[in-house]
Amino acid sequence: MSLQPDSTPDTDTGTFNNQEHPKTNNLFKESFLRILKSKTSVIGLCIIIILLLTALLAPLIATHSPTDQSIVNRYQPPSVDHWLGTDELGRDIFSRIVFGTRISIQIGVIAVGISMIVGVTLGSIAGYFGRWIDMIIMRVIDIMLAFPSVLLAIALVTILGPSLRNAMIAVGIVGVPQFARLVRSSVLSVKETEYIEASKAIGARNLRTLFGHILPNCLAPIIVQMTLGIGTAILDAAGLSFLGLGAQPPTPEWGAMLSDGRAALQNAPWVVAFPGVAIFLFVLGFNLFGDGLRDALDPKLKD
Amino acid sequence: MTPLLEVNHLKKHFPLKNQELFSREKPVLKAVDGISLSVNTGETLGLVGESGCGKSTAGRLMLKLLEPTEGEIYFKGQDITSVQGEQLRKLRQDMQIIFQDPYASLNPRKTIEKTIMEPMKIFNVPKSERQKKLDHLLDVVGLSPQHKERYPHEFSGGQRQRIGIARALALDPELVICDEPVSALDVSIQAQVINLMEELQDEFNLTYVFIAHDLSVVYHISDRVAVMYLGELVEIGDVHEVYNNPQHPYTQALLSAVPEANPDHERERILLTGDLPSPANPPTGCKFHTRCPIAQNICHAEAPRYKRVSENGQMAACHFAKEVVAQGT
Of B63, B79, B142, B273, which is the most buried if we count CB atoms within 10 A? Predict the structure, then answer.
């Protein structure tokens, strides 16, 4: 029976890699099918897909340039030419929202990426090594949690200087505590399982145990937190831009658009309303999908 | 001949959290409270006792998966009690463990190929050799090579335990601690796994410390047996001697509870009264006196010493065990 693998050692490893993927996919396929069963998360998924397509195809969808000004056409109500009207500088709001999708997705992904990398690292170190390391890391996290998140983000941007990049960094840092606490608690529970003891028994070093055995078993809550975190990140970043601490003009960022239009709220409500709706849809989409994902990945629901 | 593994007065006390304010004494749970035994190369030592008597803790102490509070551990004549870090990691090649729960002891996110290969990867076994070794291991534990890309959840309990065994044998260890390896399996599967373990012992020249609470399983596989009660050894000796002629009242009670196949055989059942005392607050003197059918005043006051109760080295810790004077001493 040992003849078969010996005769073709190279192709054997090749087929192993090929066959591994469907197996890993099976786990995700299973959860994906479970997501499709819930109507709300399907709605969330649809919104996300539409937003992604919009961001990808922005130049094709937009009817005007997002930054071209036309003073003659300022504060135009929605019409055939300007689907969602124009703002104080006569820019087409529909086109600005379409291009703003790119910025919002960028903010969401980068900010959550920062939170995830820093939070997972801190949380897993705290949970795995325990003792004084845990004590120090978690007290720092507690201090961060003591500030309201927007306030902390404002403080950070004030230190770093207002710009879209710094807003993303600030929103990312503000999201760290959620990840750190979540990962720490998952690591604590996985750490006690027998297969972690087994990895110790076969002589695995700490890093191998942590990254090879513990973290892969904490993936589900991390993925859920990332999806839910994108919505919050967008909201926080829009808040910063609204205050003039994030995206700078003429960047078509939704929060900044809200801020620009608020002076004319009574005469030209569409300037504020449509970016608001865009933010609302974006956050709603990710939250619905994140909730569905959490339910689908919850091990208690598995048979 | 130096024994493969020897432990002397091994103790493990777990600190308990609920310490009273201002009290000086820290409450501890005495999971293992001074056991001494030795395991010779190639033999199987059965370690039995009821739940919570410290069997598993003792097994983990021998492997240094837990740090002993007191006592010494010698492996191949070398003191490994205070070995740490990289040196301890090297030692892991020679001593392995098979876990009780085959559902919990395999990482659900790793294919069985990765699981069995991992110890070889850690100890830098050349790649070509790894593949060969993997196929050989799968073969000896009775799994098919096409199983290797599957995940643990696709296997039954017995198959998983075979995977656990293959992982433990991947580095050709000398000592394998078997922590109740069959108690989570169906009876029919138990026999298969036990027989497999016996075959592997011959093929790989293994020494087993076999932890179990099933006395008939231990009788079947062990050469010698050690009986534990509340963190202490109460009796140790050749398995036939201990089973046929138990000297400690606790061993007698345990053995009288083993069901017999012959319905006509009238047997005297020794029923123990009371519960197992808490290892956080064990009784004074002989720890067994609270439940012992033959306890006297001396048992409250004085802990019994180990008495040699047979010519072949059977030892029992009871005030009333008959001592045999060894010839020539």
Answer: B63
